[in-house]
Amino acid sequence: MDDSGQPAAFDGALDGNERARLGARAAEAARRLAGQDVVAVALTWVDVSGITRTKTVPVGRLEHAASWGVGMSPVFDVFLLDDSIVSGRYIGGPAGDLRLHPDLDRLVPMAAMPGWAHAPASRYAQDGAVHPLDTRAVLRREMARLAAAGFTAKAAFEIEWALSESAGDGFAPACHGPAYGMTRVSELSGYLRDLLRALDTTGVTVEQLHPEYAAGQYEISVAAEDPAGAADTAVLVRETIRAVSMEHGLIASFSPKVEADSVGNGAHVHLSLWREDDARDGQAGEPAAASERPASGSANAMAGGDGPYGLTSAGESFAAGILERLPALLAVGAPSVASYLRLVPSHWSGAFACWGLENREAALRLVTGADGERASAANLEVKCFDGAANPYLALAALLAAGRAGLDAGATLPDPVDVDPGTLAPDEQAERGIARLPSTLAESVAAFEADGVLREALGEAVTDTVATVRRGEIALLDGATPEQVAAATRWRH
Fold first, then answer.
1. 343 near 384, Cβ under 8 Å?
2. Is residue 257 part of a domain?
3. What is the rounded distance in angstroms from the CA atom of residue 379 to the CA atom of residue 370?
4. Residues facing 405 on adjacent strands
5. How far apart are the C-alpha atoms of 91 and 77, rounded to whole Å?
6. Is 36 helix (H, G, I), strand (E, B) or coil?
7. Which of 253, 452, 463, 487 could form a disulfide with 404 if both were Cys (CB 3.0 to 4.6 A apart)?
8. Which residues contact 221 (CB under 8 A, 6 or more apart)?
9. Is 366 within a domain?
10. Measured between alpha carbons, how far is 99 from 268 in angstroms, rounded to an integer?
């Protein structure tokens, strides 16, 4: 670690040549956007509390923003969900400045907000050094470490949200049909049509959309991509949902617990590990048949092996690394006090540290896909993460945990094919099934004690995550479940 709290091996600094290159690209992009009647670009980042923050620039200032950035305070990293501010060892107070630089590769007009474009922002110090709390950079660093070991990953978030027809603080479901029922599609068919159109126009590949279990709740699934792209897409999808909802006089909540007596919103992560065909290890079994291989030539380590349900040895080790660290991972994946109102047994939220084939009560679900497409479709689903998570930080931590499993050659315990909550405590213990933390404080303690995550994320990130989580715990200390849900409902 250097004095900034960032691993010293990471170097993504901006120099004069890079600034000039970015400025030239941005000037061309600005001309194109102006021709599409775009007048402003929203530069977004996600803070440690999981809230998407923004600064915007007129399209004519995009060139300057790309070259020199837009000023912002570092203190946003220690904002709590109610916008109060705490201080950690690395971040806190009014002094200092950072620069937001738009990622021009992800710059896109927003169909749901005519006249506006969106670009996720990366954050740098004024000297061009990467800010240690820039979670996009943290994720890209973990992707690079995985690549150095000969692997890549693909990821996607399932996004759940609840729709209210009320403009007040309370929640009034915008539809009333049964869970997963076609009635809910009929009730809001125009809204859902406009949402799908907006996402398609914005370039998001939607794989499916359906009504969910809770009142007024829906879920959308998008195509997998590289982890940084998946996190960018998750932000874009949520803001598109929010904008289309408002256009229809509705309010969308992505909170992990919209109502205290109902199920919450998850943000399940789908994740798969990939490597080159000729690099697959011998004990992992033969590569998939040519007819099942993706055109890219890489091979999915979650299929075609001799391990449980077709996992290769690398795929099993990657999964085992994640499973081992789930208690600590919850500090970034289930990061709110409200998260633990959602994370309860027998609610399909993944409240137990176990894995299983297509087991929706296991925190780690192996999805193989249908026969004939397993080589492209097989993946892990992390079910215990929710909509309060910063998607960049969540994926960075998952990759770090999986990489640690690869390095250790870790193996999985026996899979679980029942609801673990229905097993007697002694049987749970015998099968090695542990309840995940039931409070945010427990997760934070596990997170701070985990050396792998501390090294991967950096001291600045580790300290700031713990500081913000303790701040929220103190903020909501003594609150009833109803008060926690109300305080969180419209913040994510």
1. yes
2. no
3. 12
4. none
5. 7
6. coil
7. 452
8. 156, 158, 159, 206, 207, 208, 209
9. yes
10. 31
DSSP class of residue 266? B
Q: In the chain, how many domains are there?
A: 2
Cβ atoms < 10 Å from Cβ of 22: 21
Tens digits of residue pLDDT in 421-436: 999 999 999 999 999 9
Residue at 169 is within a domain: no
Q: Is the pLDDT of residue 467 over 80?
A: yes
What are the tens digits of pLDDT across the range 284-294? 333 344 334 44
Q: What is the average per-residue pLDDT within 257-276?
A: 94
- The strand pairing partners of 206, in sequence order, are 222
pLDDT recorded at residue 297 = 61
- Integer CA distances (angstroms), 141 to 44, 156, 455, in order: 20, 18, 12
> Tokens at residue 341, please?
């109102």
DSSP three-state, residue 359:
coil
Domain end marker among 99, 134, 169: 134
In a domain, 109, yes or no: yes
Three-state DSSP class for 240? Answer: helix
- What is the number of other CB atoms lying within 10 angstroms of the CB of residue 193? 12
CB 125 within 8 A of CB 100: no
- Distance, in Å, from the CA atom of 343 to the CA atom of 265, rounded to the nearest integer, reads 10
For residue 271, give the nearest of 339, 367, 356, 342 by alpha carbon.
367
Instruction: Please write down the HEC assignment for all residues of 269-330.
Output: EEEEEEEEHHHCCHHHCCCCCHHHCCCCCEEECCCCCCCHHHCCHHHHHHHHHHHHCHHHHH
Structural domain boundaries enclosing 64: 16-134
Mean per-residue pLDDT, 142-166: 96
